[in-house]
Amino acid sequence: MICSAEDDWHRRKQRVELPGGRPIAFVDSGGSGPALLLLHGFSDTSRSYCALEPILSGYRLIIPDLPGHGHSAMGDGVRVSDFAASVEQFLAFLGISQIAVIGHSMGAMTAIEIAARRRDDVSALVLLSASLTPNFGSSSPLTREIRALRDPIDPDGQFLREWYSCSRPVEPGFLSKMKRDAAAMPAAVWHGILEGFAETDLRQTAMRVTAPVLCIGGSADPLFGGSHREALAQAFPSVQSITLEGYGHNPHWEDPQRVSALIVSFLRRQE
């Protein structure tokens, strides 16, 4: 199984209230090692990282549901910059400053924004299936499908089956829970994030990142392919880029052991 304790994941979530009374839900592994902030992707929740938790047990993992996802309330907006601002408030509430950041997809974009803003605080940055310019295109089939979403979203419908398809086998029970979490997110949030992606350009932001960066992407990623990986490889002052042959958009689900090993090796070199 990808995550032996996945049924307990929601019950493990803690909650804090950001200014304005907005709750943010998160899992804190309680580890005694250095703090790692893990940020999930579009429509996912903190559960995205459940399989990495036991492998990264030497660290204290802080894994929030981003605003509008899972058990976290909407913030002031659904742009990458809005998510970054909420995460900064969340970290301040927890009293955490020095931290390494791991982000997947939209979470990776948010991580880039945070690392650019907090150059003295972010010690290392790991980006999984990232993009600097995530515009899907106004007339693409994916854009049309997301725009067509209406509440209630069917967790077993064709859209979410395709949205959560993976290039390598992933535990069906885990994917079922991810689809149910995604279906619970209002269609308006899906639409807003899609619009935000069309306006997102992190190329200048990436140039302000001073932390060492590890980029991991799959050669079979249907969302952010080779051109996105090449742009990332050239964007940061200090960057290592790894392409996993035959892996898709969710390499940390498809092979958590391999991805975790790459992350740990990179972080240890920085330490």
TrEMBL record:
<dbReference type="Pfam" id="PF00561">
    <property type="entry name" value="Abhydrolase_1"/>
</dbReference>
<dbReference type="InterPro" id="IPR050266">
    <property type="entry name" value="AB_hydrolase_sf"/>
</dbReference>
<dbReference type="InterPro" id="IPR000073">
    <property type="entry name" value="AB_hydrolase_1"/>
</dbReference>
<protein>
    <submittedName>
        <fullName>Pimeloyl-ACP methyl ester carboxylesterase</fullName>
    </submittedName>
</protein>
<dbReference type="InterPro" id="IPR029058">
    <property type="entry name" value="AB_hydrolase_fold"/>
</dbReference>
<feature type="domain" description="AB hydrolase-1">
    <location>
        <begin position="34"/>
        <end position="256"/>
    </location>
</feature>
